[in-house]
Amino acid sequence: MIEQWNDRTEQAAATIGAVLASPPDPVGLHAFVPNFTEKAENLTRGLADGSLRAVQVIARAVR
After folding, report:
1. What pTM was estimated for this model as a whole?
2. What is the DSSP string of the chain?
């Protein structure tokens, strides 16, 4: 059963934007995710144009 459904798109876009605007960190996500900048830019574009949404869902198992 879904207890909460929260749209976190604006927060996700702001967070990704801040990461992209920050100077590269030697142990940042780009060190672990191939093509991180390209992927983050694609994510930001998708969030901005509405083709992607970031949601938080809290659900409880029904037995």
Report:
1. 0.75
2. -EEEEEE-HHHHHHHHHHHHHSPPPTTSGGGTSTTHHHHHHHHHHHHHHTS---EEEEE----
